[in-house]
Design goal:
The protein is α/β, with parallel strands linked by helices. The protein has two domains: 322 residues, Rossmann fold, CATH 3.40.50.1820; 126 residues, no CATH class. Helices cover 37% and strands 17% of the residues. Strands 1, 2, 3, 4, 7, 8, 9, 10, 13 and 14 form a ten-stranded mixed β-sheet that branches. Helix 3 packs across helix 4 and helix 8 packs antiparallel against helix 9. The protein is globular.
Length: 495
């Protein structure tokens, strides 16, 4: 009888053990020690990965955000050591992309152009900026391992998380706690955001300053998405795509010899000047443009894009980017080109159409990123959990209303003479194009009185320019130089 009771108890214990709820700890940290050789210097560093709560007004946890924080060891004066706070975009994207391919101490095992290589995994990043700054990678609610509390259902207050202004507000509060817990109030601080993260960090620059009293030294926007331009439509939004068309067509040798035989950086200024001075006014005339001007414009657009003049006329000069991705190489092998990085090519079911069947670049990236981040966090950083790492999390519908982030950045810069901005873009990015990024930079401060505090850097790759090894080095060097130039200047913050 005793033996039977013991067996039943044991089976009950097993059943209980395997039926526990799958939840992430609300507040926890795991710390590991590592070594790196970066930019020619060898040193040890600490990796802290864990979760930190988001609280409501009553002090009740309503979400738990997962983060990974790297600090260089043996720093005598941490107050002089910069802190880089890193976000990706989406909205709904985890921080995996820049964490495990750009600025962090480890990067994906990929080839020099960014294509997957098996077996999947990570390798040392000799170009990381960890030599000059500590770094924290933050996963907003429902991205990566981060989750709302409760995770699903009608009890989740979506208005507190899933919109431009909600996102900025709770992340600013969360960062205040993080900086306090880690004793980083005296450090020069930088925020970097990729894609939608560009909108996020523009808004955070003012929210941190005016709601948390946290003043920054720099905002870095990587392939930024500015919703004041993207998806808006109209002459400006449409015309700004042409220099990207020029770059992508040049890469695929689809331009006329007069352009193709020149270097990319020789021809882009031509395309940019035509866009600003001629194309925007032409498209603005709509149906009242003369036939002669319309045909002349279409001829020039074909010259700079590699598309057929008749296709451009069929679109009334307003050519969708999806049509370009589908049709640029239609007569050169029936390949499509990638959206986020047009160096990548794909194969569709039918040659005819107005958009590709799939994003050739994103499917390629997910090959290597997904196994790498799961392996790295669980096996190298020892963060053990059954929670799924959300490469793209459930955050929609997303509230894009009342987007004042561009002016938020202007106001933050005006109030804070220390605040500088670095914009980085890949020439072959067809989602958030490099010329869109330049245009956003030009529009932040219409007075032009702060333009000497902006920098733009372009790269011969796409949305994630750092996947190409040559640009991984160059882009990290640009961030390193930006931080060195703007941190601890010893100058008074005054005009």
């Amino acid at each position: 009888m005793k033996k039977s009771i013991l067996i039943l108890a044991f089976l009950g214990f097993i059943a209980f053990g395997f039926s526990q709820e799958r939840k992430l700890p609300i507040d926890t940290t795991i710390t590991t020690q590592h070594n790196a050789t970066i930019n020619g210097a060898s040193f040890s560093y600490t990796a802290t990965t864990g979760t930190q709560p988001v609280w409501d007004e009553m002090g009740k946890p309503i979400a738990s955000l997962h983060y990974t924080y790297y600090t260089r060891n043996n720093i005598k004066n941490r107050a002089n050591r910069p802190l880089l706070i890193s976000f990706n975009g989406g909205p709904g994207s985890g921080s995996v992309w820049m964490h495990l391919a750009y600025t962090g101490p480890k990067v994906l095992k990929i080839d020099d152009e960014g294509f997957p290589v098996q077996p999947y995994g990570v390798k040392a990043n000799p170009f990381s900026v960890l030599d000059v700054t500590d770094i924290v990678y933050v996963n907003p609610a429902n991205t990566g391992y981060s989750r709302t509390i409760p995770e699903t259902g009608k009890d989740v207050d979506r208005d507190k998380f899933f919109g431009i202004n909600a996102d900025i507000k709770y992340l600013a509060e969360w960062l205040n706690t993080f900086v306090t817990r880690n004793n980083r109030w005296r450090s020069p601080k930088y925020i970097v955001g990729e894609s939608y993260g560009g909108t996020r960090v523009m808004g955070l620059s003012l929210a941190l300053q005016n709601q948390q009293w946290m003043y920054l030294n720099g905002v870095i926007m990587v392939s930024p998405a500015d919703y004041k331009v993207i998806r808006v439509g109209g002459p400006v939004s449409s015309a700004l795509n042409l220099p990207y068309f020029t770059a992508a067509a040049w890469h695929h040798k689809a331009l006329p010899p007069e352009l193709q035989n020149k270097d990319l950086l020789e021809i882009l200024p031509e395309s940019e000047a035509y866009t600003i001075n001629t194309l925007i006014p032409a498209i603005a005339k709509g149906g009242f443009i003369s036939d002669a001007e319309k045909n002349k414009t279409a001829e020039k657009m074909a010259f700079y894009s590699g598309l057929k003049q008749e296709d451009i006329l069929d679109h009334n000069l307003d050519v969708p980017t999806a049509f370009f991705w589908k049709n640029l190489l239609k007569d050169k092998g029936d390949f499509t080109v990638g959206r986020l990085d047009s160096r990548y090519t794909g194969i569709d079911k039918k040659a005819i159409g107005t958009r590709p069947d799939y994003n050739s670049e994103l499917t390629s990236w997910l090959h290597s990123f997904t196994p790498a981040i799961n392996y790295y966090l669980q096996e190298e950083l020892n963060f053990k959990t059954d929670i799924k790492y959300n490469m793209f999390g459930p955050v929609r519908p997303w509230n894009n209303e009342n987007d004042n982030t561009r002016d938020n950045l202007r106001q933050a810069m005006a109030q804070n003479p220390y605040l500088n901005v670095l914009v980085q873009s890949g020439y072959y990015d067809g989602a958030t194009t490099y010329f869109n990024a330049k245009y956003t930079m030009w529009q932040v401060d219409p007075s032009g009185r702060m333009k000497d505090r902006f920098e733009f850097k372009g790269y011969r790759s796409g949305h994630m320019m750092y996947l190409r090894r040559e640009d991984l080095q160059k882009a990290n060097d640009d961030i390193r130089a930006f931080i060195k130039r703007t941190a601890n200047t010893g100058k008074s913050a005054k005009y």
